[in-house]
Amino acid sequence: MANYKIRGADQKEYGPINAERLRQWIGEGRLNAQSQIQAEGTSEWRPLSSFTEFADALAAPPQRLAAGAIPPMMPTTRTPLKNSGLAVTSLVMGILGFFTCGITAIPGVILGIVALNKIRKSDGQLGGKVMAIVGLCLSAASLIMLILAGLLLPAVARAKRNAQPFPNWGQSQTIHCVNNLKQLGLAVRLYANDNKDQFPLAAKWCDAIQTDVGGNTTIFQCPGAPGPRCTYAFNAKISGMDVGKINLNTVMIFETQGGWNLNGGAELMIRKPRHGNRFTVCLADGSVQQITASQLSELNWEP
Fold this sequence. Notes:
Blueprint: E1 3-7, E2 13-18, H1 19-27, E3 36-39, E4 46-47, H2 55-59, E5 82-83, H3 85-96, H4 105-121, E6 126-127, H5 129-163, H6 169-194, H7 205-208, E7 232-235, E8 251-255, E9 263-264, E10 278-283, E11 288-292
Parallel strand pairs: 5-6, 7-9
Antiparallel strand pairs: 1-2, 1-3, 3-4, 7-8, 8-10, 10-11
Helix pairs in contact: 3-4, 3-5, 4-5
C-alpha cells in the first residue's frame, strides 16, 4: 500500500502515512483539496485534489472535530514568496547592459545563473525565477551585441579606408618628393667627389648626374606635378663651385614649375606649395628641409 507525506500549514512535513490514515485526516477536516501531498517514491509536492484516489474522501462532508481541536494540516493563507535579490539585480544589470556598452552584461549573466540555482534549492521559499531568466537573457543579448560590435567595427573601418582610392595620397606624395631631393642631393655630392670637389655646371646639372642616379629619371619628377621631365631646379650661383668654399646651408636644389637642366634662383621657386603648406628644398650639404611660406625669406641663396 502506498504511503504519503503531508506538508502542514506550519511548513513542516508529516508522515509517511498510508492512504487509510490520510482519508481519516480528510474526514476530520485536517486536510483539504489544497493540502500539499507527496507520494512515496516521488519528489513532487502536489495538491491533494490532484490525487484521484482521494476524490471520494474530499467530496464527503468532514466530521465534526472535538472542541478545541485544531486541524494542523489545514493550509493557511499563503505568504507571498520573497523575490530573490540576485534575480532583481540580474534583471537590472541586463537592462543596463544596452546602455553601458555591455559593461554590466557579464555580472548580469553570473547573477542570473546564481539566482536560478538558489531559487531552485529554496524549495519554494524564494521567488523571482522569471526575473532571473529575463535578466540572464538580456545580459547575454547585450554581451553578444558587444562582441559583435567589437568584431564588426574594425572591419567597417577597414572597408571605409579601402573605399578611398588613395587614403594617404597627400602624405605619400610628400614623402616621395623628399626622397627625390635626397637622392638628387646625394647624386650631386657623388658627382663632386668624382670631379675635384666641384659642383656640376648649372646649365647641365641634370645631364651631369645621370650616371650617379643610375639612369633613374623618375626622381627628377615631383609626384605632385606630373608631366614635366624635371620639376626641380639647380641654384645657378653654386654652378661649378668648389664644395669646400661655399656655405653648406646654401640652397642647392628646389621645387619649380619644371624644365630639364633648369637653373636659377629664388625667382624660380614655385609660388604655391605642392605638399600641404610646405616647400621642399635640398641644401648644399645634401640635407632636405620642408619650410613654410614665412620661412622662404630665411633661405640662403648666396654661396
